[in-house]
Amino acid sequence: MPITNKESGTNIVEIAKRIYRINTPVPPSTISGGFSFNQYFIADKEPLLFHTGPKKLFKLVHDAVGSVMPVENLRYIAFSHVEADECGSLNDWLDAAPNAVPLCGKVGAMVSVSDMTDRPVRAMADGEEVSLGTCRVKWFDTPHLPHSWECGYLMEMESRTLFCGDLFTQGGHENPAITEEDILAPSEMFRRQMDYYSHTKNARPLLEKLAAENPTTLACMHGSAWKGDGGNLLRALADSLEA
After folding, report:
1. pLDDT digits (tens, 9 = 90+) for 224-235
2. 27-58 as b/e, with b when 16 or more CB fall inside 10 Å?
3. DSSP letter (8 states) at residue 27
4. What is the dihedral of CA 221, 225, 227, 228, to 10 degrees?
5. CB–CB of 84/55 below 8 Å?
6. Using CA atoms in the order 60, 12, 21, 180, what is the torsion angle rounded to 10 degrees?
7. What is the crossing angle of helices 230-242 and 203-211, to 10°?
8. SS3 call for 233
9. Dihedral sign (CA 49, 55, 57, 62)
10. Which element (helix H / strand E) includes 136?
11. DSSP, residue by residue, 49-104
12. Do the beta carbons of residue 42 and residue 156 sit within 8 Å?
């Protein structure tokens, strides 16, 4: 696992073709049980970063991206919803990448993001796609899943990688970069300890919308990314939420 900062343990791993997971582990001495923050970077003609990380992690994530390509080449800074670990360093990234624009759903642009930055926002409608060159990403509105009205997710359609944000959050700080082992049980254990879901009545149809796209890699924001039948796992999450 290539370490880009020895002090923090920040590391970067290619989890699918052209898609890199940037991970900063947080030890139990800082957060009980340990934790991790992940960002995902698509290296293409028009590169995209999904999740900025909190403002305090900006330098660590910046240097990790810089280990693959010049940061100033970034074209899109994307995220699921407005929260510190999702977009806390958004303006730092826009300063570092003069041609980059924020990319989010239309609701997020309307209620928050257009006011958070002076740069025009690329606001995406549900089901809209953007080409990055070889890769293309598709936006899915998922309001209140797991939380926030403006919540939504991106999927890279060539590799079938779903950037699924806070879905399947796993605790701990020593998770592998990508796994085929069960992540539903540990993520549900974490959810029940810290009930951060909105429990929207629309959870099942929203999860089914994502499952129908047949993702084969789930790029989680906390813990390991996961490889396998993502449609089945998303439907299993729906079952667990209803149980």
Report:
1. 999 999 999 999
2. eeeeeeebbbbbbbbbbbebbbbbbbbbeebb
3. -
4. -40
5. yes
6. -140
7. 170
8. helix
9. positive
10. strand 136-141
11. EE----GGGHHHHHHHHHTTS-GGG--EEE-SSSSHHHHTTHHHHHHH-TT-EEEE
12. yes
Q: What six digits make up the tokens of 12?
A: 């970067």
Q: Is 159 left (phi over 0), alpha (psi -120 to 50) or beta?
A: alpha
This prediction's pTM: 0.97
Spatial separation of the C-alpha atoms in residues 45 and 34, rounded to whole Å: 36
SS (H, E, C) 146-209: CCCCCCEEEEECCCCEEEEECCCCCCCCCCCCEECCCCHHHHHHHHHHCCCCCCCCCHHHHHHH
Would you call 12 helix, strand, or coil by DSSP?
strand
Count of CA atoms in the C-beta half-sphere (13 A) of 38: 36
- Identify whether the C-beta of residue 165 lies closer than 8 Å to the C-beta of residue 80: yes
pLDDT digits (tens, 9 = 90+) for 135-183: 999 999 999 999 999 999 999 999 999 999 999 999 999 999 999 999 9
